[in-house]
Amino acid sequence: MTSRASSPDLQAIKQVARWISNAKRVLFITGAGISADSGLPTYRGVGGLYNNEGTAEGIPIEVALSGEVFRRRPELTWKYILEIERACRGATPNRGHEVIAALEERQGLEVWTLTQNVDGLHHKAGSRNLIEIHGSVVTLICTKCDWREQVTDYAFIEANHDADALPPTCNECGSVIRPDIVLFNEQLPEKASFELERQLERGFDLVLSIGTTSAFPYIAWPFLDASRSGKYTVEINPGVTGVSQAALIRFPHGAAETLGALHDELTK
User: Fold this and answer.
1) Is 134 in the active site?
2) For the residues 144-148, what does the mean pLDDT come to?
3) Catalytic residue among 97, 134, 253, 263
4) Which of 230, 254, 212 is nearest to 29 (CA)?
5) Complete domains list, the chain, with CATH
6) CA geometry: angle at 140 spanning 116 and 51, to 5°?
7) Is the CB of residue 147 less than 8 Å from the CB of residue 166?
8) Which among 22, 21, 2 is positioned nearest to 12, based on CA atoms?
């Protein structure tokens, strides 16, 4: 069932609201599209800001932002980490993030969010049952010791490290620091992967895929498995994706608009 109107189909909104009202456990799977209304670019991984173009060094951005290059040339990886963070700096949660966080407070409903995003906006909006499968850019960690710190932005790094002074180093041990994110070709974080597996084993009555192309198997699988198991599945995405055919209801609209309409229906 797909809405093609200029705004989310009201009957479809009502149906999803009924599913949520009757559900005990709901999973939201989010990608860059949910942060688009916060002014963030809908990039692939962390590299699509460059629209498949190469870097000034003549290598693909995915290579510059890979674990291998970070180990060999951390100053190069940091150069592009700073460019991406600067483009995202100052973003705040939008209506989509806020609705998901608000649903966690709904009595009798357990809500979990699996996000590919590293922007930290779900956390800022108040979501607690959050699986940041690619990590978070707002957390910096040392590559050697246990130092870690939550930060607002990377302005202090820019102020103290020009291109010739990168990478930034740990005040505790002097080793290179990095964002606590998954670079290209790195393994997923063990803690987040374990939590995802644990929650999927418990099962969900309804799974919503929002603003993601579902290109990664671990992002597509929970949605596809829910569909095969006869659970309710909803997709919110202006574009057709790899999981679109598995959606019982599909909204080809923005996340903030659709989730806002859903929240309005639930709170009538």
Assistant:
1) yes
2) 96
3) 134
4) 212
5) 1-40+92-134+187-268 (3.40.50.1220), 41-90+136-181 (3.30.1600.10)
6) 45
7) no
8) 2
